[in-house]
Amino acid sequence: MQIFRSIIPFRRFYSDGEEEPTASRTSEIRPPPDGGWGWVIVFSSFLYNVLVLGYHNSFGVYLISLLNTFGETSQKTAWVGSISYGIIMVCGPLSGKLTVKYGAREISIIGSIIIMVSIICSSYAPSLNVMFFTHGILTGVGSSFAFTPGMIMISQYFTTNRALATGIVMSGGAAGALVQTRLHQYLIDTLGWRRSLRVFSTLLILCVISGFTYLPLNPKGYKRSVADNLKTSPLRKFVVDLGLWKDRVFLIWVLANGLCKFGFFIPYVHLVKHAVQLDIPVHKATNIMLVLGLSSMISRVIFGKVCDSDKINRLYFNQASVFFVGLLYMLIPVLRSYPALIAFGLLLGIADAGNYILLPVLTFDLMGAERMPVAWGFMLTVNAVSCFGPPFAGWMNDIRGSYNLGFMVAGALNVAACFVLAFIPLAQRSRQTRKSIINVTIGQDNEIMEWADDTPPFTVRDAYKNYLSRTRFRCPELSDSGPSLSDDDAELNIVSG
């Protein structure tokens, strides 16, 4: 029963010498193995990111072909990729809910199939407006379903190696950009952009196969906990989770990431076109993306290992990463040669890796294990602001004939996010507590019922006693870098009226 004292909203107390009834005993939840089959899941999730996120990160090579085919403005054309980025984020909460309800394996496989179908449909699109639906919405939904389950599984399978596992998985997006930028450019030159999409869709069968490795840590069918019973009890209306949108730490974390993610996809969509405008040949311009992808992939793995150390403050590491990304964006106007842009890609891949891999890790550290799926879903939704970055940069290019201002605005927002992150330690120290106790009992049918008054309906020797509305949304595996909760901290309140 010790494990439940930190993960369920009520605890049950029995009189001396009295054993807990066997019928109501809940099977213990298996602790994270911190390895084992988890490494198979890491590889599968890595492959998902190589194929799915790598495709989105390298979609900029299609921009020139789409501009030539449909003859639309840079701003409108950029929305094709940006809508899909936004949908991935917006559907984060839905993907998390479906993953919890139906399982990571099922949702990831369904997502992979949706992506395959939508990419084939995009290859036949007669207009840009059709691609807004096929690539923007359908591919975005499928990508969210394919991406989110892997991140949730990693948080369930790992503790001390969580940052390393996350770094490996997150490097998949960079590795995918590294490989697919050259692959798609070759297919476009050889077959045209429409056939290129059809060929790539067949590769996604690997995602369907990988999805079968997402085995749940705790098999379906284990007995319901008191927390599960509470969800269907008459008292469910008294339970109010005040731990997220009323948590100052979460609000600051969301605001900072919203600011720094605005310009995240701008290089992946516009950097090749920006280089072409500087009279750099397109085949040399794609090398910039190769360098960006290679440096980002290596840095994510290295930083993942480094951030597992107790000597590293992950929050400060993330701040430094965000600041240097902003600084690099603001230097774009003076980087006008091919070697300068190669150096930009190299340094951007290194700087951005810290923030990218620490996004799920810090969300777990700040919010705890219990709230990780919900918090991660909300984080992805807020990060949907990244879909506005590429169209904004494209709009600036249409007006001013250059992407410089778009990069500079994104850089300024990153620097602002760095200073916003500085308020998180202050917010952690000022967290306020509210507690409340109600009297409840569990009936023979496992329904939770409220006592009409303060007098318990059973004696002290009966099996049903008071429940204390005291929950800590954390797990014992959190390292010292995680949230430090005192006895006055609480994230869940039981209120009546």
Helix content: 55-70%
Number of helices: 19
Structural class estimated from helices and strands: mainly alpha
Rg (CA only): 25 Å
The major pleated sheet works out as: 2 strands, antiparallel
Order of helices and strands: HHHHHHHHHHEHHHHHHHHHEEE
Q: Could you tell me the number of beta strands?
A: 4
Percentage of residues in strands: under 5%
**Largest beta sheet: strand ordering:** 1-4
Distance between the termini: 31 Å
- Mean pLDDT comes to 76
Broad shape: globular
Uncertain segments: 1-27, 221-242, 432-438, 452-497
Description of the structure:
The protein is mainly α. The chain has helices spanning 37-57, 63-70, 74-90, 92-102, 104-123, 128-157, 162-191, 193-203, 205-211, 226-231, 248-260, 266-277, 282-306, 314-330, 338-367, 372-382, 389-400, 404-421, 424-429; strands spanning 239-241, 440-442, 448-450, 492-494. The strands form 2 sheets. Strands 1-4 form a two-stranded antiparallel sheet. Strand 2 (440-442) and strand 3 (448-450) form a beta hairpin. Helix 3 (74-90) runs antiparallel to helix 16 (372-382), helix 11 (248-260) runs antiparallel to helix 18 (404-421) and helix 17 (389-400) packs antiparallel against helix 18 (404-421). The radius of gyration is 25 Å and the shape is globular.
What distinguishing features does this structure have?
single chain; two-stranded antiparallel ribbon; disordered C terminus
Task: Give a short overview.
By secondary structure, the protein is mostly helical. It has helices at 37-57, 63-70, 74-90, 92-102, 104-123, 128-157, 162-191, 193-203, 205-211, 226-231, 248-260, 266-277, 282-306, 314-330, 338-367, 372-382, 389-400, 404-421, 424-429; strands at residues 239-241, 440-442, 448-450, 492-494. It is globular.
